[in-house]
Amino acid sequence: MIRNRRISIPFALTASAVLALTACSSEGGRQEQEAGGGGAADTPRLTIAMVTHAAPGDTFWDLVRSGAEAAAAKDNVELVYSSDPEAGNQANLVQNAVDQDVDGIAVTLAKPDALESVVGRAADAGIPVVGLNAGIDHWEDMGLLEYFGTDEHLAGTAFGERLNEVDAQKALCVIHEQGHVALETRCSSLAEEFDGESETLYVDGQNMPDVRSSITSKLQEDSEIDYVATLGAPFAMTAIDSVAEAGSEAAVATFDTNEELVGAIQSGDVEWAVDQQPYLQGYLAVDGLWLYSTNGNVSGGGTEPVLTGPSFVDQDNIDDVAAYAEKGTR
Amino acid sequence: MTRTLTAPEAAPGDGPGQPPTQVARRSLLRLFLARPEVGSLLGAVAVFIVFYAVAEPFRQAASFSTVLYASSTIGIMAVAVALLMIGGEFDLSAGVAVITSALTAAMFAFQLSLNVWVGVGMALLFSLSVGFANGWLLIRTRIPSFLVTLSTFLMLQGLNVAMTKLITGGVATDSISDMDGFASARLVFASSFQVGGFTVRVTVLWWLLFVAVATWVLLRTRIGNWIYAVGGSADSARAVGVPVHKVKIGLFMTVGFAAWFSGMHLLFAFNTVQSGEGVGNELLYIMAAVIGGCLLTGGYGTAVGAAIGAFIYGMTKQGIVYAGWDNNWLMFFVGAMLLLATLINAWVRRQTSRR
Fold it and tell me: Which residues pair with A200 in a beta bridge?
């Protein structure tokens, strides 16, 4: 049962995209289903490009994209999604969107300096640009229309506060990509707020056995660690194994969620996840551009970011989230 | 030393490669020192001593078990990659091929609701055919292995993500941990057991077994002779009747087999696999083989050496954590340790060849 339902999601998305591409009517069929029965917008068809710094095959970014696709289906928008973790390549993809003269661009500013000039060119071409996920300190200066995402600093701080609440003594913050600004900010903000001691550990996120043995090693080395904080859901799942292997008493908590993590929170293996709602980020970015183009709306008035987190997923609210996670939207 | 029959003279630019006829005349000690893996063995001892001295937790049995596990996951692949390098080729697709195999098994079993062993079998078939395709393309097109396997690497990377998304609707596989056959497969690929307070991971045993088999094949069988011959000089080997094409394709398929095995370990140890993983690991496998004494030019090296190379990497990577050194410097320390091991390796070989 579950399996069938899951296959139908990509199928529905593809089908609606195909329908949309062939410029069918904007009502009825799967498109309507996608929009939750409310019917798709009858506004003129727009083309919106979303360019992120996602590495391929990452569960987090898949949620962002799903959200963007859902909004696109509802808003009669053709979504052109592309991504590249290298800042220079990402800038080229944005330029590519400018060249295509799209009706709007949603971009992540993980490395703002590299994107500054190309975002300026989009503005010169009269294309509205919104930011999402990364770049909360830069979007306004760079002239972006609005921003949808979390403040990594806020997220880290919230995590630190929570650690104080549960009376943690020593936390291990596991960074799965060395030199990633947002990840470093999470750990440093956590350390700032947390009254206990905290330490960071770098692991190779492309290599799960390395993640597992490195966390195990650290826990063996330092038996005082009582909380392991991972910065992505798949790493939390691995940290559970490491804790068991090292014979440590440490609890695991994480940033970000995915479908598998839901089960781990239900069973108590992971205590909580700080959720930045990636689906919402993708959805709002596309919807924001649509609203601006069709109705002149600007969320946050162009001066305040629209925050999608941090919210906590823990045993108190996990059952509400679980149903959505199963559909691949949380 | 059956390989003395066919191992070619090293070209002057090859550095430490030894004319094997001299090796045969040496005393036992020199014979030992001249073996390709001895330099890396001394390197391993040096790295061990460093961490034994500076990292207190490194001295405990539990830590050693973790180090061995980290080494084995690199080492299983390194053995096959070393064989391929001795045969004169290398494989850049080996890192993502591991993920491809894990994804194939997981999706096959999950989507068709089959016993996971069926998925495991399909993954084996698929991995072997990827290896076959690599070797076949190399031979038919005469494109260097660098380019053939680079292309495979990129194609597999795209295939991993695209197929996973197409089939599962997400970019990670669904958890198969509650399916039939999972428990027994886990026992084979990802279990661990206690031996007197020391945790032995099954991957370590498999690793040792693979090293032993590869060593036996290299030193005691005709195929081993062929591998050295093909890597030394494919033309001369062909001239004396070695089936060069079959050997090369077989070596690529061996890498495919190891990728399958490593992929199965990932799947059954971690239940789900993210489709974007694995990129960059191919260099770790090659690195382990090179530290272990394999020449990048082929025709020289051993499986034991590759195992020691993987062990050096495992000790270094985990040793730095045990030592509590500043994390920002982690990769620098790893690089420096590897350089040290390689230098000791090269120095030992120079010493033995000078006498």
Answer: A173
In a domain, B3, yes or no: no
Q: Please answer yes or no on whether B170 and A221 come within 8 Å at the CB atom.
A: no
Is the residue at B29 inside a domain? no
Which B residues, 11 through 70, put their C-beta within 8 Å of a C-beta on chain A? Answer: 55, 57, 60, 62-63, 66-67, 69-70
Assess A117–B contact: CB distance below 8 Å, yes or no: no
Provide the 3-class DSSP secondary structure of residue A209: helix
Cβ contact A217–B66 (<8 Å): yes
CATH of the domain at B218: 1.10.3470
Query: Does the beta-carbon distance from B271 to A57 stay under 8 Å?
Result: no
Residue A78 pLDDT grade (very low, low, confident, very high; cuts 50, 70, 90): very high
Between chain A and chain B, the number of residue pairs with CB atoms below 8 A apart is: 140
B114/B122 Cα distance (integer angstroms): 11
Cβ-based neighbours of A229, under 8 Å, separated by 6 or more: A159, A163, A171, A172, A173, A174, A187, A190, A253, A254, A255
Shortest CB distance from A209 goes to which of B67, B73, B95? Answer: B73
Element (H, E) at A208: helix A208-221
Domain of B294 in residue numbering reads as: 38-344
Query: pLDDT band at A326, cuts 50/70/90?
Result: confident
Q: What is the largest CA-CA distance in chain A?
A: 63
Structural domains counted in chain B = 1
Task: Please state the ipTM of this predicted complex.
Answer: 0.78
Closest by CA position to A310, among listed A198, A153, A182? A153
Chain A residues in contact with B269 by the CB 8 A cut-off are: 208-209, 212, 241
> Average pLDDT of chain A?
86
Q: Å from A58 to nearest chain B CA? A: 6
Residue labelled with tokens 């494109």: B143
- What's the rounded Cα separation, in Å, for the pair B273 and A57? 10
State the Cα–Cα distance between residues B242 and B139, nearest whole angstrom: 15
d(CA B148, nearest CA chain A) in Å: 22
Query: Which residues, in sequence order, are CB contacts of A208 under 8 Å at separation 6+?
Result: A234, A238, B266, B269, B270, B277
Pairwise CB contact (< 8 Å): A214 & B321? yes
Report yes or no: B160 at the A interface, CB cutoff 8 Å. yes
Residue B103 contacts A, CB cutoff 8 Å: no
Q: Which of A303-312, B45-54, B344-353 has the lowest mean pLDDT?
A: B344-353
Q: Looking at beta carbons, which residues of chain A come within 8 Å of B274?
A: 57-59, 234
Tokens of B25: 């005349």
Please identify among residues 296-315 of chain B the ones whose CB lies closer than 8 Å to any CB of chain A: 314
pLDDT value of residue B353: 66
The Cα B190–Cα A193 span in angstroms is 39
Across the interface, whether the CB atoms of A245 and B171 are under 8 A apart is answered no
B228 touches chain A (CB under 8 A): no
> CA B62, CA A165: separation in Å to the nearest integer?
32
CB contact under 8 A, A237 and B270: yes
pLDDT-based confidence at B7, cuts 50/70/90?
very low
Whether B150 is covered by a domain: the verdict is yes
Cα A284 to Cα A67: distance, rounded to the nearest angstrom: 8
CB-CB neighbors (< 8 A) of B324 in chain A: 221-222
Residue B212 has pLDDT above 90, yes or no: yes
Residue A253 clears pLDDT 90, i.e. is over it: yes
What domains lie within chain A, and their CATH numbers?
26-133+277-297 (3.40.50.2300), 152-275 (3.40.50.2300)
Residue B217 burial (CB count, 10 A): 17
Examine residue B20 and state whether it is found in any structural domain, yes or no.
no
